[in-house]
Write a structure and sequence with these properties.
This protein has 275 residues and is of the alpha/beta class. It folds into 2 domains: 182 residues, Rossmann fold, CATH 3.40.50; 44 residues. Helix content is 35%, strand content 19%. The protein has a 7-stranded mixed β-sheet with strand order 3-2-1-4-5-7-6.
Length: 275
């Protein structure tokens, strides 16, 4: 049935913006910077950015025992490279449109076009993929590439957001559940899938409240009067912002919940029969 058959002309309107036409975010946090991830500025950012802080906590544990060659896919500013042991061989890759779409153009990164990664078959011990899968329009091909590059029995470490705003509009396509993650990985060459929630309902509540306050402290407007007025208003809420960030951080110590910031995933490339 065509729209003209479904609705009388003119078609009814919900009197809200059609989000299909959105191509810009009303406000977005500053992108990560390439450099020392343990600097005071980076530590402060992770305290207030609960998404980044929760990922850092998990990867601090998971990457500590890495060995061999680690492939960081969609590496952006390579914020988690410093968590790897010095003996690890690191390769960072990203798409050639990373600068245009996401604002990243980082030294020591292999930029590529198309769906095929510039990495040899079976040459990688661990594939690291942080907050990237939601930006991949065709995740099946992406995961098949991960399986192709990994050695038999190699590891995949993956993080995805769940309770997170639509970001890098329009290049943000999916929100995954544990069920969909397990299905996709098992269908595309992985086994032993483990999915861990980052935080719970309290974490999400703190995260959302912080998201309301940060645009006051970090206004993105060229009008000086408006900018400084917002900053002054934001300073009033600074104690509340610190309390929310502290509560959110403490809540990450729990076992996680059905409503969470996102998921940290561990999986193994299926072992080849000959091994």
């Amino acid at each position: 049935m065509s729209p003209s058959q479904l609705f009388k002309s003119p078609a009814p309107s919900l009197h809200r913006a059609n989000m299909v036409h959105r191509h810009l975010e009303s406000w977005k946090p500053p992108i990560f910077t390439f450099g020392n991830a343990t600097s005071p500025a980076a530590v402060i950012r992770r305290f207030f950015d609960l998404q980044a802080g929760s990922i850092w906590r998990d990867l601090t544990v998971l990457l500590h025992s890495s060995s061999g060659t680690v492939l960081d896919v969609g590496c952006g500013a390579q914020p988690y490279r410093g968590l790897l042991p010095p003996s690890v061989s690191y390769i960072g890759i990203d798409t050639s449109d990373a600068k245009e779409n996401f604002g990243y153009e980082i030294p020591d990164t292999r930029y590529f076009q198309g769906a095929i990664w510039p990495v040899d078959d079976g040459s990688i011990d661990t594939v690291l993929c942080t907050e990237t899968l939601e930006h991949i329009l065709k995740p099946k091909q992406f995961l098949l590439e991960a399986a192709r590059c990994l050695k038999s029995g190699g590891n995949l470490i993956l993080t995805v957001p769940f309770s997170a705003r639509w970001h890098y509009i329009p290049h943000d396509y999916w929100r995954y559940t544990p069920s969909s993650i397990e299905y996709l990985l098992k269908e595309n060459g992985f086994e032993n899938v483990e999915v861990y929630a980052r935080g719970g309902a309290l974490t999400v509540a703190c995260y959302k409240c912080i998201a309301l306050l940060l645009p006051l402290l970090l206004p993105q407007t060229s009008k000086l009067i408006v900018k400084w007025s917002l900053r002054l208003a934001g300073m009033v809420f600074m104690p509340l912002l610190i309390i929310l960030a502290g509560m959110g951080t403490l809540s990450l110590n729990g076992s996680g919940g059905d409503d969470c910031l996102g998921y940290t995933v561990i999986a193994r490339r299926v072992l080849e029969e000959s091994q």
